[in-house]
Amino acid sequence: MFSGIVEETARVVAIEREQDNLHFTLTCSFVGELKIDQSVAHNGVCLTVVKLTDTTYTVTAMRETLDRSNLGLLQVGDEVNVERSMMMNGRLDGHIVQGHVDTTAQCIAVEDQQGSYVFTFHYEADPEMARRGYVTVDKGSVTVNGVSLTVCRPTDHTFEVCIIPYTYENTNFHDIQPGSVVNLEFDIIGKYLSRMIPYFN
């Protein structure tokens, strides 16, 4: 379980393919605090630490994860938003994030609003997915590359998010531009409610 409050960005230092799996080796400031089997969200994707050195850690993404996320597009040197799992005695500063990415979206516009930024994203949607809660709603929550954000001006296929300077500078949002592919996780509460509604009609 995560909150969508990114701790920092980790840098990819190696990528190794093993059959359909990709092993990502990364470095960040909290490597020394990690343990084997620990969960860390990478651009919003929950992955398990499988190997540690003094300065790096390695996680593995399988085909299902690569098909649903942007992790397969990563290259050595890229920055990845990382968050360790929530501590149950802490405050939930973002929203409930599972680390289970639903789909990807493409950035179609970035507007500089004299200090802050407005990003517009487009994702593939259909009525069946919408009935199951895979949608954005105005002032609702969405996770973009692991960042908990508030939705603005949603349509059937697009939505906007407003990014303050701190978030822009301390996540990989400063690398996102029109054409960039990002990971989306829709609000789990909305998905559960949408799934349950037919049983009460």
Task: Spell out the key features of this protein.
single chain, 201 residues, mainly beta, Elongation Factor Tu (Ef-tu), domain 3, 2 domains, six-stranded antiparallel sheet, 4 helices, 39% strand
How does this structure look, described?
The chain contains four helices and twelve strands. The longest helix has 9 residues, at 188-196. Strands 1-2-5-4-3-6 form a six-stranded antiparallel barrel. A six-stranded antiparallel beta sheet has the order 10-9-12-7-8-11. With 201 residues, the protein is mainly beta. The chain has helices spanning 63-68, 127-131, 165-170, 188-196; strands at residues 8-18, 21-27, 39-42, 45-52, 57-61, 79-84, 103-113, 116-122, 141-144, 147-150, 158-163, 181-186. The protein has two domains: 8-84, Elongation Factor Tu (Ef-tu), domain 3, CATH 2.40.30.20; 103-200, Elongation Factor Tu (Ef-tu), domain 3 (Beta Barrel), CATH 2.40.30.20.
CATH architecture level-2 label of the largest domain: Beta Barrel
Describe the largest sheet: 6 strands, antiparallel, barrel
- What is the ordering of alpha helices and beta strands? EEEEEHEEEHEEEHEH
Quickly name the level 1 CATH class of the largest domain: Mainly Beta
Count of structural domains: 2
Work out the strand percent: 35-45%
What is CATH's topology name of the largest domain?
Answer: Elongation Factor Tu (Ef-tu), domain 3
Determine the fraction of residues in helical runs and give it as a percent range.
Answer: 10-25%
Count of discrete alpha- or pi-helical segments spanning 4 or more residues: 4
| Alpha-carbon distance between the two ends | 31 Å
What is the typical, i.e. mean, pLDDT?
93
Shape: globular
Number of strands: 12
The spatial strand order of the largest sheet comes to 1-2-5-4-3-6
Low-confidence stretches: none
